[in-house]
Design brief:
393 residues, alpha/beta, Urease, subunit C, domain 1, TIM Barrel, 2 domains
């Protein structure tokens, strides 16, 4: 990265020249540049020219829209999972993130004030059907009285009346770790009631144990709902043996979307490879990044996660769409986020290919060889943030 001298005439605030500029939303792919003015994309492509206050040259980099992580855990305090979005997500290419259930009815206002409003990272929220969000050590829905559809609806409506725009939907996770002794069917039913009353979609974490068939869970969902943890190796996962379940294909036909949600135990190369080979691709690639990931070597971030999907057999255009334009559209942010089209927000990620990086590893320890995309810098609303070594806290 070589900063160039400032120009006396500066129609652009910033121009980033790169060996490759890629935008799935507009079809751009090749050597070129991205120009920024006033926190917006001014131009992108091979013919960008003109003076700028700052010029960055990244001849080895891939420059693309800021990455969109559809499932992670940005928080400051309270959440047992939370990571600081501006420290642990933004410097590594992610400019927009959806929080999975960090806040519920009782702490939604605090989350708005302490995480959403002060963050440079664009944070959207799936409100937890558990009224205490992810604060309880035994799971957000482990106590039946915490599963409160009415409180959830009232909190969402109050937030909307105050002009809040950050609530995307509701979070309902019926896993054993989340529900504990609470009936998972009751948790899902409460989430669906609240979703119907608010008109919001669900980010749904399915029951992955043999006590509740996935084929019984999926038909309860509605078009626009998103199922996360889709490549988990478990009793009631995506695959029935080696085949993608008929119920999964039927859900996709009805408009149910599927997200990776890698996390600490929810990405298996075998499952991903079998599904991809059969033509079942996720609609979004996400990290499910949370506190236990901090300090890991190699770092768990969205560039490394998308690299795993490349190793599992997805085509490059499909992968990059699913960390930019695809999840942006799911969040209702198409045109503003996930694109380098002129007028869009100036959110940009620069990555470089490292062919000698540590092997890619799934959450069971299986490895795949191959290189890794690594973050170089991020631009959020026109502001440059350089990737750096990560602290453990």
């Amino acid at each position: 990265m070589v900063p160039m001298p400032a120009s006396t005439e500066a129609p652009f605030d910033l121009v980033i020249h790169a060996g490759r500029v890629l935008c799935p939303a507009t079809g751009l792919d090749g050597p070129g540049a991205v120009a920024v003015r006033g926190g917006r994309i001014a131009a992108a492509g091979p013919s960008v020219s003109g003076p700028a206050r700052e010029v960055l040259r990244l001849p080895r980099a891939l420059v693309l829209p800021g990455l969109v992580d559809l499932h992670a855990h940005p928080a400051r305090g309270e959440s047992r999972y939370g990571v600081d979005p501006d420290r642990h997500l933004l410097p590594y290419g992610t400019t927009t993130v959806l929080a999975q259930g960090e806040a519920g009815a009782l702490n939604l206002a605090r989350y708005q004030a302490t995480v959403i409003e002060p963050s440079l990272t664009r944070v959207r929220l799936a409100v937890n059907i558990g009224r205490r969000g992810e604060a309880p050590a035994d799971g957000s829905c482990a106590t039946a009285e915490d599963v409160d559809a009415r409180a959830c609806v009232e909190a969402v409506r109050a937030n909307q009346k105050q002009g809040g725009e950050a609530i995307w939907g509701l979070s309902v996770n019926v896993s054993q770790a989340t529900c504990g002794p609470t009936d998972p069917r009751a948790v899902m039913a409460a989430g669906l009631r609240a979703a119907e009353e608010t008109g919001l979609p669900l980010l749904f974490g399915p029951r992955r144990a043999a006590d509740w068939a996935l084929a019984d869970q999926l038909p309860r969902l509605r078009p626009g709902d998103v199922v996360t943890y889709c490549f988990t190796d478990c009793a009631e996962g995506l695959l029935d043996g080696e085949r993608v379940r008929d119920a999964v294909w039927a859900a996709r036909e009805r408009g149910i979307r599927f997200d990776v949600g890698h996390g600490m135990g929810s990405f298996d190369f075998r499952v991903a490879e079998r599904a991809i080979a059969q033509g079942f691709l996720p609609d979004a690639i996400s990290t499910d990044r949370y506190g236990r990931h901090l300090g890991l070597t190699p770092r768990h971030d969205l560039p490394r996660t998308l690299s795993k999907l490349l190793a599992a057999g997805m085509r490059e255009p499909d992968v990059f769409t699913r960390v930019t334009a695809g999840p942006a559209a799911l969040l209702g942010l198409a045109g503003e986020v996930g694109t380098l089209a002129p007028g869009a927000g100036a959110d940009v990620a620069a990555l470089e290919w490292n062919p000698t990086a540590a092997p890619l590893r799934d959450t069971a320890g299986a490895e795949r060889p191959g290189g890794v995309w690594e973050p170089v810098l991020t631009i959020r609303a026109g502001r440059v943030i350089h990737a750096a070594a990560e602290a453990s806290g």
